[in-house]
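Hi there. Long-time user, first ticket. I'm pasting a complex I've been working with (about 224 residues overall). I'd like to know whether the download I got is complete or cut off, because the file seemed smaller than I expected. Thanks.
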Amino acid sequence: GENVEQHPSTLSVQEGDSAVIKCTYSDSASNYFPWYKQELGKGPQLIIDIRSNVGEKKDQRIAVTLNKTAKHFSLHITETQPEDSAVYFCAAASGNTPLVFGKGTRLSVIA
Amino acid sequence: EAQVTQNPRYLITVTGKKLTVTCSQNMNHEYMSWYRQDPGLGLRQIYYSMNVEVTDKGDVPEGYKVSRKEKRNFPLILESPSPNQTSLYFCASSFGGRSTEAFFGQGTRLTVV
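Hi, the file is complete. Here it is re-exported in full:
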């Protein structure tokens, strides 16, 4: 089945700097790659997703890139702010397999 | 407001005492699932349902049961809870199944002593 590896497990950045979180997946049939943000005491919430027919997607300060050949995808957050501090999860799925999540990255933005 | 509602938010129980965690969504979603979240292990799927009366095992189904008698509700049942089921549980729903946005509930923190 699908296996998703996520790195790093923790990440600290200065406010205003960029943060990058990377994930790899094993199942070449996976075609949907969402990123979720989990704030303290809350459930995960989708922040951006990308499908396998697209290489990059941006939404304001957040971008995701996908390299299907290498089977990896990354989350980029620019101009980080304290409210970006949270746990971030990547995931992968196909039409035949459910979402498989990475183990999460705890991002701390230091003011 | 579109939401997934779980109850209770916090629960402490004793080993072997049956319990049910309820989950309800108001978005008319077909696909619902349960996850447990443990430190260092991320989110692992327990059970999922693709529609009413259709349920299937996820990655960690042992010790859990589910039912889907109505589209909006997907309760998680622990017939005989054990301490290794102490965890943070999330219910999620989505419209189109596996490759669409999942909406998560607020979570249920369960402690089994």
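A couple of notes from our side: The first strand of chain B starts at residue 4 and ends at 7. Chain B touches chain A through 24 residues (CB under 8 Å).
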